[in-house]
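Hey, resending since the last one bounced:
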Amino acid sequence: GTADPWGSKVVRASAGTAFRASIALASAADAAQALTEADRTVVVAASEGKSSLKRTDDIVLVVGNEGAGVREGVRQLGHATICVPVEGPVESLNVGIAGSILMHQITRERKGSH
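The structure tokens again:
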């Protein structure tokens, strides 16, 4: 399961952004097909993969939970994978932290400041 996008804590934490976001409910396969038809690249966060992307415009970043990650069926629908390289005894990152790091890196690459 995922968080309820209209839950009181979610709405409060979003600082009003929840009311400006377009939210749709679809199966993973239908969503992937619609995104592909809209020329979006589906990038899946994984524990292994590249740490940068060739294409950073019009992408959709998919992140999963810390324990299981992105479900295999959803992972297979992705066009690419990306990871946060970790060193030392770190096994995994909190999904919010990993997603934030990846979005920051994607934004830097998009602006050309690697």
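The chain is about 35% helix and 15% strand.

Sorry for the duplicate.
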